[in-house]
Design goal:
The protein is of the alpha/beta class. The protein has a single domain, classed as Rossmann fold (3-Layer(aba) Sandwich). The chain contains 6 helices and 7 strands, in the order H-H-E-H-E-H-E-E-H-E-H-E-E. The protein has a 7-stranded mixed β-sheet with strand order 3-2-1-4-5-7-6. Helix 3 links the parallel strand 1 and strand 2. The chain is globular and about 40 Å long.
């Protein structure tokens, strides 16, 4: 899977819209993105750089080395301090750090059921108690005629975060991409580590 994503970053993949996702701009402006922030599956860093410009301490991780190279170049050009690392989202304990907020824009929906379970455990190791995981993923309402990643139901999100978690909300949202003029049908979720 890593090679697929790394190859995608040879060009501009459809999920890389060249700016932070509107949903994450709103979350930051409302104060939901706070404290030490980890942007997991950060891609070329648009969301992470946006958060850092707001004065937050931000780390961005992605398994695709090309994505991280692009993110580092952007941060340097924009004179923003973000710690970008090539890292496995299923092994966040290797960061040896915890965060107040973890953001995920389009990573959760790439996981198989088995990987999803591992990811929730990995996420648990990276979040402070009382910290919040903010996630945007394609919903089952998004048509499948164009392919793309797996679609996720509200029930799948809730069942992934049963023990030691509190689901604050799962709202209808839009996921911006080059395939959609107004964004694909998505879920925006807020989950707190209990």
């Amino acid at each position: 899977m890593t090679s697929f994503f790394d190859d995608a970053y040879r060009g501009t993949p459809p999920w890389d819209v060249g700016r932070p996702q509107r949903e994450f701009v709103r979350l930051a402006e409302s104060g939901e993105v706070r404290g030490r922030v980890l942007d997991v599956g950060c891609g070329t860093g648009e969301n992470a750089i946006f958060f850092a410009k707001r004065g937050l301490e931000v780390w961005g991780v992605d398994a695709a080395p090309r994505a991280i190279e692009k993110a580092e170049r952007k941060a340097t050009l924009r004179r923003v301090k973000v710690t970008f690392l090539v890292a496995d989202a299923l092994r966040l304990e290797r960061l040896r750090r915890t965060f107040d907020t973890v953001t995920d824009c389009g990573l959760f929906h790439t996981f198989s059921d088995e990987e999803r379970e591992k990811f929730v455990g990995s996420l648990n190791s990276a979040l402070e108690t009382g910290g919040t995981y903010l996630m945007l993923c394609f919903s089952e309402k998004e048509p499948t005629d164009w392919g793309g990643p797996r679609r996720v139901t509200k029930e799948e999100i809730r069942s992934s975060f049963q023990k030691k978690w509190k689901v604050n909300y799962i709202k209808e949202a839009r996921f911006e991409s080059s395939y959609h003029s107004d964004g694909g049908m998505a879920w925006l979720s807020s989950v707190t580590k209990a």
